[in-house]
Amino acid sequence: MPKIRALATLLVTAAGAIIAEPKCPRLADAEPSALVSYLDGSMASQTPACVEYAIGQLGERRYGPAADTLIRHLGFRREPDFWEKGEDVVELQHEWYPAATALFQIGKPALQPLIDLLGTETPPVVRAKALQTVVDICRDDFVSAVKLLRAAAAKQEDSAAKTRLLDAAGRAVQMCPRGLRPQCEDALR
């Protein structure tokens, strides 16, 4: 029955193209500030489909002021769609965590809030998604990701935060391409 419902959400246009029905019609015309308000609102009034939609729209619109809100949703894992259910599904980097994708789309304005998050105690999945997003944003200059994390650690007075940031910098070094690994290791020192 769920498979039939998933297929029923597809519509065929007059030209024969398949389009998806909006996942959250109530937010379909919402401005970015309204999407942020929705995500910051009561979880009791939110649905997973609308949370996913709001996050996706903020990313597509590259709405920088939403970075802190999106960071609070890094652990939100969207429901797999009809095509993703099954034994042979392989999870890609950010695909099932829409806030990571949205923060990547926002880019550099999201870096500092992500780095700040990496200095705090967070669940492992949130930590992993935050670090991967930092590295992805710095994909054109991997060494800068290590430098940013190292610099943030150096500024910390809290020893636990410093340790977490140094750990993140060390993990970023491991993500550096082989050709850049020596420069990334130098940036860590």
Alpha-beta content class:
mainly alpha
First and last CA, distance? 57 Å
Alpha carbon gyration radius: 19 Å
Question: What is the average of the pLDDT values?
Answer: 85
Helix content: 55-70%
Can you write the helix and strand succession as a string? HEEHHHHHHHHH
Q: In percent, how much strand structure appears in the residues?
A: under 5%
Main sheet properties: 2 strands, antiparallel
Oligomer: single chain
Outline, from the CA principal axes? elongated
Note the total helix count. Answer: 10
Contiguous runs where pLDDT drops below 50 for at least 5 residues? 1-20
Record the strand order, biggest sheet: 1-2
What do these coordinates show?
This protein has 189 residues and is mainly alpha-helical. The protein has helices at 2-8, 32-40, 48-60, 67-72, 98-106, 111-118, 124-137, 142-155, 159-175, 181-188, and strands spanning 10-12, 18-20. α2 packs antiparallel against α3 and α9 (159-175) runs antiparallel to α10 (181-188). The longest helix is centred in the C-terminal third of the chain and has 17 residues, at 159-175. The chain is elongated, with a radius of gyration of 19 Å.
